[in-house]
């Protein structure tokens, strides 16, 4: 084609698009010699397809993000609502009626105190890092009082909303409340209001967040999501621990705090006699215990599946579904095994014990629920029942620790069993599905980073033990020191008169039941011989020094 003809075509295209450079681009790509208008239409049609594709991809990404955010929020609602109410009813039913309103109030204030503590400090210590930067392997150091979350949520161009947005704080706060509330039952009927409020703030703002950072932050030294470059730290054994929904982070942390609290505060008056024999102290309502158990089980479908934090992809949906199934099977198996073991031992059907067994199954499956086959979840639940029954007996009869709701056995020991279990039976393909090709998921098969019974090399199992030891050391030291300071300051335990009469009558809350047998405070002359608040008859009838809190268990 001759030069003048081409120039004429370009000029016609310029007349149509009013841009010389664009006209040249169109003519270079399309044959404009026959019709300049057809050439421009071809160009516009292709651009429309490209723009439509770009818009479609953007829209799909936004829909996926919105779906994930909605899923995380809904999971948080399930954790906070049913689970917190379940804990509250369970604790209230497992103790005597004269203290029920006191423990209800403490559970309500757990949520309030944790919200403030986690808002001001806890979330920053758990996950705080500036976008594109790292914190360190031990503790987070950014986003105090949600300052960065506010910025991220107001400026989506920063690109950190999915990991640092409002919804993430709410979800992680719900987890923190669960860990904190575990202690309320272990120290029930004798802990002061002031000490409990201080405990709730301390564990939610500092102790729990440090553990969460170790295991769940991309920068944590125990984190399976750590890529090895965070602040000069690498994940432990280049593997990290598998703790998908917090058998260690949540339950062992709360269980260890419960152990320290129950041990240091001492047993309830009358729990042990002078010889150390255990006196039975039944809770006042098995109905409340059963209701609480069902609510906790229901809430666990937000707790465990929600820990995946995403459901918008097919792979995410598969993981979430598997977690829900494994959670169900473990709880059901543990409940049945507990039922029949108790019947074999005593020829009785124990409703409250079955409830505890189901909860032990839920706790134990938390770590490995995403990386186990359903049959392995059944084995996990079976083991959980045995661990719970054994440890519950050991805590009360051997260690002489009074734990009214069995929190230590349920959360510390069942949590320990659950944390170890993925080191035995984590399936290679499921590990890869959950952790992808980064952190723990890097080179899974060649490095043998899965359960040893599948042929794994053992580093995952070792990491599980390291996490357990680290949690016990950290939480035991922090909470032991905390409770000991309050004990020395005589602010940990209520006065003997108040404990005998019932905390609903003598403290800030109003008694809601006719207890019938409340003991009125005695005049000073009657209790002078045996210390404040103890009459001669009450002292001996309730077991002497150990019973009133002066013995070796205090």
TrEMBL record:
One of its GO terms (cellular component) is plasma membrane. It is a multi-pass membrane protein. GO terms for biological process: ammonium homeostasis. The keyword Transmembrane helix applies. It is found in: Cell membrane; Membrane. Keywords: Ammonia transport, Membrane, Transmembrane, Transmembrane helix, Transport. The chain crosses the membrane at residues 69-95, 107-125, 166-187, 194-216, 244-265, 286-303, 323-344, 351-368, 374-396, 408-426, 465-486. Its main location: membrane. One of its GO terms (molecular function) is ammonium channel activity. NCBIfam families: amt. Belongs to the ammonia transporter channel (TC 1.A.11.2) family. This is Ammonium transporter. It comes from Volvox africanus.
């Amino acid at each position: 084609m001759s030069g003048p003809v081409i120039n004429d075509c370009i000029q016609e295209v310029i007349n149509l698009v009013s841009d010389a450079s664009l006209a040249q681009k169109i003519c270079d790509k399309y044959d404009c010699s026959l019709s300049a208008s057809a050439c421009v239409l071809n160009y516009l049609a292709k651009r429309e397809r490209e723009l439509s594709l770009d818009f479609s991809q953007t829209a799909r990404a936004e829909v996926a993000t919105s779906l994930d955010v909605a899923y995380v929020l809904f999971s948080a609602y399930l954790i906070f609502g049913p689970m917190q109410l379940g804990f509250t009813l369970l604790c209230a039913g497992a103790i005597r009626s004269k203290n029920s309103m006191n423990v209800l109030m403490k559970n309500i204030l757990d949520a309030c105190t944790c919200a403030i503590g986690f808002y001001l400090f806890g979330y920053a210590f758990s996950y705080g890092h500036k976008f594109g930067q790292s914190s360190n392997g031990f503790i987070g150091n950014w986003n105090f009082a949600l300052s960065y979350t506010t910025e991220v949520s107001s400026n989506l161009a920063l690109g950190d909303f999915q990991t640092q947005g409002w919804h993430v704080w709410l979800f992680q706060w719900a987890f923190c409340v669960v860990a904190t509330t575990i202690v309320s039952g272990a120290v029930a009927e004798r802990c002061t209001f002031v000490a409990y409020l201080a405990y709730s703030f301390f564990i939610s703002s500092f102790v729990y967040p440090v553990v969460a950072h170790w295991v769940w932050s991309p920068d944590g030294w125990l984190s399976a999501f750590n890529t090895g470059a965070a602040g000069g730290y690498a994940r432990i054994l280049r593997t990290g621990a598998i703790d998908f929904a917090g058998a260690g982070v949540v339950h062992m942390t709360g269980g260890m705090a419960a152990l320290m609290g129950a041990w240091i505060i001492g047993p309830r008056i009358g729990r042990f006699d002078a010889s150390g024999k255990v006196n039975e102290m039944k809770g006042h309502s098995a109905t409340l215990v059963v209701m609480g158990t069902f609510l906790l089980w229901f809430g666990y479908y937000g707790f465990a599946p929600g820990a995946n934090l995403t459901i918008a992809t097919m792979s995410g949906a598969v993981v979430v579904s598997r977690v829900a199934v494994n959670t169900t099977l473990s709880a059901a198996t543990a409940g049945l095994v507990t039922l029949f073991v108790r019947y074999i031992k005593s020829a009785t059907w124990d409703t409250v014990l079955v409830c505890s067994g189901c909860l032990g199954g839920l706790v134990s499956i938390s770590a490995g629920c995403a990386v186990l086959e359903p049959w392995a979840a059944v084995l996990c639940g079976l083991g959980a029942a045995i661990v719970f029954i054994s440890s519950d007996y050991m805590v009360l009869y051997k260690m002489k620790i009074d734990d009214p709701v069995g929190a230590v056995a349920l959360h510390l020991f069942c949590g320990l069993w659950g944390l170890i279990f993925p080191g035995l039976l984590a399936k290679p393909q499921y590990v890869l599905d959950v952790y992808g090709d980064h952190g723990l998921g890097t080179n899974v098969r060649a490095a043998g980073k899965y359960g040893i019974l599948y042929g794994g090399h053992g580093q995952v199992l070792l990491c599980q033990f390291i996490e357990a030891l680290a949690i016990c050391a950290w939480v035991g030291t922090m909470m032991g020191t905390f409770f000991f300071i309050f004990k020395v300051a005589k602010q940990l335990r209520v006065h003997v008169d108040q404990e005998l009469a019932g905390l609903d009558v003598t403290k800030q809350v109003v008694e809601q039941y006719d207890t019938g047998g409340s003991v009125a405070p005695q005049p000073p002359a009657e209790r002078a011989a045996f210390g404040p608040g103890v009459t001669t008859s009450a002292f001996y009838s309730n077991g002497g020094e150990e019973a009133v809190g002066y013995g070796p268990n205090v």
